[in-house]
Amino acid sequence: MNIEIKDTLISEEQLQEKVKELALQIERDFEGEEIVVIAVLKGSFVFAADLIRHIKNDVTIDFISASSYGNQTETTGKVKLLKDIDVNITGKNVIVVEDIIDSGLTLHFLRDHFFMHKPKALKFCTLLDKPERRKVDLKAEYVGFQIPDEFIVGYGIDCAEKYRNLPFIASVVTK
C-alpha cells in the first residue's frame, strides 16, 4: 500500500501544548499521589514519553500491547493481548495512555483486564479520539483532540510501521 501525506491535522506545537495541559489535569486529579502510567504499545510510546516528563507526581511506567487490528487498517473485532504489564497495580492509581480511541474495543478489553487487578483508580488518557467510530460505550477521562474519521500517521502512530517519527499528526491518502 502506498500512502501520501495529505494534510497536517495537528502541528508539533499544538501537540506539545496539549500534552502539557493533559499532564496538568492528571497532576491535579492525583495531587501528591503516586501514579502508574501504562502505555499501550506501540502507538502511544511517543505521547506517553512526553506526557510523563510533564507530570510532577511520582510515576511508575509500564507497557502493554494489545490489538484488534492485526496487520489490517480495519478492526477485526477481536482483541488479542500481545504483552501484559509487569508492575503490580493492585491498590494503585492507574492511567492507561493510548494514542487513539477508534472502535474502543481495545480499551474496553484492557479496562476489564485491569479491573481484575483491583487498582485504586483506573483512568484513560488518549491523545486522539474518534467518537463516531465507537463500537462500545467507552470514554476517556483525558482527551487531547477529537479528530475526523480519517486515516492518520505521526507522533507514534504508524502505517505499516512507518511514519511514527513524524513530530506532527497528518492525514493520509492511500494509493
UniProtKB/TrEMBL annotation:
It catalyses: IMP + diphosphate = hypoxanthine + 5-phospho-alpha-D-ribose 1-diphosphate; GMP + diphosphate = guanine + 5-phospho-alpha-D-ribose 1-diphosphate. InterPro entries: HGPRT, Hxn_phspho_trans, PRTase-like, PRTase_dom. Its cofactor is Mg(2+). GO terms for biological process: GMP salvage; guanine salvage; hypoxanthine metabolic process; IMP salvage; purine ribonucleoside salvage. SUPFAM superfamilies: PRTase-like. Transmembrane segments: none annotated. Its EC number is 2.4.2.8. Keywords: Cytoplasm, Glycosyltransferase, Magnesium, Metal-binding, Nucleotide-binding, Purine salvage, Transferase. Pfam families: Pribosyltran. It comes from the Bacteria. Pathway: Purine metabolism; IMP biosynthesis via salvage pathway; IMP from hypoxanthine: step 1/1; Purine metabolism; GMP biosynthesis via salvage pathway; GMP from guanine: step 1/1. It is an enzyme of class 2 (transferase). Residues 13-158 form the Phosphoribosyltransferase domain. One of its GO terms (molecular function) is guanine phosphoribosyltransferase activity. GO terms for cellular component: cytosol. Purine salvage pathway enzyme that catalyzes the transfer of the ribosyl-5-phosphate group from 5-phospho-alpha-D-ribose 1-diphosphate (PRPP) to the N9 position of the 6-oxopurines hypoxanthine and guanine to form the corresponding ribonucleotides IMP (inosine 5'-monophosphate) and GMP (guanosine 5'-monophosphate), with the release of PPi. Belongs to the purine/pyrimidine phosphoribosyltransferase family. This is Hypoxanthine phosphoribosyltransferase. It comes from Bacillus fungorum.
